[in-house]
């Protein structure tokens, strides 16, 4: 389970201890990631772990509302994914992308800096107005 805590400078730390190892992500007060770390339980596990770290960072961003795309961007991405042959549905709900392996596609769609691995939608840099 991912655990979150504030830092003294107004940032956040997310940490998780899993069967694959320990993960730690640190954001500064402006929500920029300043550190991502993975300590594998077994050294031979290190290959492919960057994919897991990226996923953990994306999940933490989505959960905390950091780097959130506008509602229009989220809806546009969702419609594209719903018509993609790589999408996997369960009970008529979009659940997974078989192109990137993301099992939490609904979380990936809301993070502005994420992009489709097939090039169907890009990362966005414009932030929604508050």
Write a structural description.
This protein has helices spanning 49-64, 71-82, 105-108, and strands spanning 3-6, 12-18, 21-27, 33-40, 87-90, 93-97. It is α+β, with helices and mostly antiparallel strands and 130 residues long. The protein folds into two domains: 3-64, no CATH class; 68-130, no CATH class. The two termini are 30 Å apart.
List the helices and strands and how they pair.
Elements: E1 3-6, E2 12-18, E3 21-27, E4 33-40, H1 49-64, H2 71-82, E5 87-90, E6 93-97, H3 105-108
Please summarize what this structure is:
This protein is α+β, with helices and mostly antiparallel strands and 130 residues long.
State the domain count.
Answer: 2
Category from helices, strands and their pairing: alpha+beta
Radius of gyration: 16 Å
Mean pLDDT equals 80
In helices, the fraction of residues equals 10-25%
Give start-end ranges of low-pLDDT stretches: none
The tally of beta strands, per DSSP, is: 6
Strand content: 25-35%
Order of helices and strands: EEEEHHEEH
Widest β-sheet, arrangement of strands: 1-2-3-4
Characterize the overall form.
globular
Task: Pick out its properties.
2 domains, globular, two-stranded antiparallel sheet, alpha+beta, 25% helix, single chain
